[in-house]
Each structure stands twice: as C-alpha cells, then as structure tokens.
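Following up on my earlier message about magnesium ion. Here are the inputs again, as you asked, copied directly from the submission form:
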Amino acid sequence: KAKSQGKNDYRMFSPEMYINSSEELLLENDLREAIKKEELLLHYQPQVDAFSGEIAGFEALIRWNHPVHGLLSPDKFIPLAEKTGLILPIGQWVIHTACRQHSSWMKAGLAPLKISVNLSAHQFLKQDFTKNVEEIMSTYSMNPAYLEFEITESMAMDFSYALKVLEELKSLGVQISMDDFGTGYSSLLYLKQLNIDTLKIDKYFVDDLLEGTYGSVLVSTIIAMADAMQLKVVAEGVETKAQLQELQSLGCQLIQGYYFSKAVPADYITENFNTLKTEFAAKR
Ligand code: C2E
Ligand code: MG
Ligand code: MG
Ligand code: MG
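Thanks, got it. Here's what our run produced:
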C-alpha cells in the first residue's frame, strides 16, 4: 500500500506502521512458541451428504488459542505463518493431529470418515513432502483412502511441478480436493489433467445461488461438468435450507456449511456423533 502512495508520502514511515509491524513481530514470536505451548488446535466441520444426511467426513480447520487475544481464526495468523516459514512446522502439526484424531475416532467406533486437511503452497512445494506424509500416515496406521488434502488453484500455477507432486501423493492413495474452486483461473479440464478427485465450490457462488435469474446457472454448469468428468463436488458455505434444496435439485452430493454445522472441537464430535447424525438426517 505504502509503495503506491509515492516516495515522499509521510505514510511511508508512519508510527502506525511501526506499531503494526512491531505487533506483527510480537505475534510472530508468540507463534514460534505456539506449538510447544500446545496453543494450536483443530476444529472439524462436517461434510454432509445432501440426500441422506450422512456424515461423509470432516474438514480440519486450525485455530490458535492465544493467551492474550483468545481464540484466533486462521485468517489472523496463517498469512503470518506463511510469510515467516512457520507454516512448515505448523502444517506438519496439522497433518499429525488430524491423523491422530482420525485414528482415535476409528477406535471409538465412529463410522469410517474422511478427514480433509488444508495445505499451503510452501508445504506442497517442499521437497520430500510426499515422503513426509507417508511417514505420518504410518505413525498412525492411517488408511490413505480416508485422508484428503485440499489445495488451491494458485498452487497449481506451475502445472508440471504440481502434476509431479500430485502424482506422488496420489500414488500413496490419498485424495486431493480443489478448494475455493471458481475463484482462481483453472478450468475443469485442468483439474481433470491434474487428477483431482473432488472440487469444492466456493461460498461466493453458493451466496449467489438464489439471487436473480442466473444465480444458479454457474453452479449448475460446474456440477454438470464435474459429473461428466467424474469429480466429486462439495458446496461450501451453505447456510440455509433454501440453498440446500437448490443444491439438491442441481445434484450436488456433498454439503459443508453453517446450515448443518460450524467447525466444532473434536471432543464435541466424539461425544455427540449419533445425535449429529440424527440431527442432519432431519435437516436435509
Ligand atoms: P477454507 O479451507 O475454504 O475453509 C472454509 C472456511 O469457511 C472456514 O473458515 C469455515 O469455518 C468457513 N465456513 C464454512 N461454512 C460456512 C458458512 O456456512 N458460512 C460462513 N460464513 N463461513 C463458513 P476458517 O476456519 O476461518 O478458515 C479460513 C481459511 O483458513 C480456510 O478456508 C483455509 O484456507 C485456511 N485454513 C484453515 N485451516 C488451515 C490449515 O490447517 N492450514 C492451512 N494452510 N490453512 C488453513
Ligand atoms: Mg479448505
Ligand atoms: Mg474453501
Ligand atoms: Mg476459503
């Protein structure tokens, strides 16, 4: 921002910026300690079958229980983690924690569930990422069929490198999902070439679903083409019954959104799994 305001602009070195960057430094120092101090945690948001109400799986979403600022959402610290490289240890922690949780849910007798884990570009592009994932999975005897990684369109900008990493990951047997689909520049054909299993339609399109005459045209086109290419589809950010019904009529199989549930702590799911199942079946 400062750059575009010109060289002599007083805002270049305003005290405000100084405060902001020192605040950022403080936060960075805290973040360095956050794993050790066990301040990071994962919440889990269900992905629900639009027609049966069955729980297909959960997306793991990181939170930071900061000693002063309270529970922070990822938007408050993931960009900083990416900027500082801390995303690598944090990302490792996320995969470990999600696999451990999955194993504990399996032992507790919950139905087979898929766990989706968000990746940052740094992780995805890091050498030996696949080997690393393989090691973590073996630590928790994780069945790879139940592990899904969510990537974003910008991570596949270098097509041939992305293709290489995705081929390695797929050879482990894990699933790959394209997050926030429709907000970037990739086409469905591109997803098919990259061997993606699932695409997640961004909330932006779901918000527009019932607006105006053409609100559902884009979503319906995406679903029809995804079907033809045998890609699974998840609609993100579904908040109302009306949106759910529209998505059902368009043939969208999986739903993630506040209408069914926000992301909740793991223990909440362990303790209320059967209640949640009944609740979702009644809401569909
Ligand atoms: P995302 O992967 O697209 O996750 C979906 C976000 O939408 C989540 O926000 C979720 O709580 C929110 N959401 C779901 N349904 C609804 C709804 O019906 N209405 C509204 N208003 N929001 C809904 P959250 O948890 O704040 O995460 C934000 C982003 O942070 C995620 O977007 C993802 O890009 C990133 N993120 C989260 N966890 C991780 C992680 O472990 N690693 C990395 N690298 N990024 C993460
Ligand atoms: Mg995601
Ligand atoms: Mg998303
Ligand atoms: Mg998003």
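One observation from looking it over: The chain has eleven helices and ten strands. Hope that helps, and feel free to reply on this thread.
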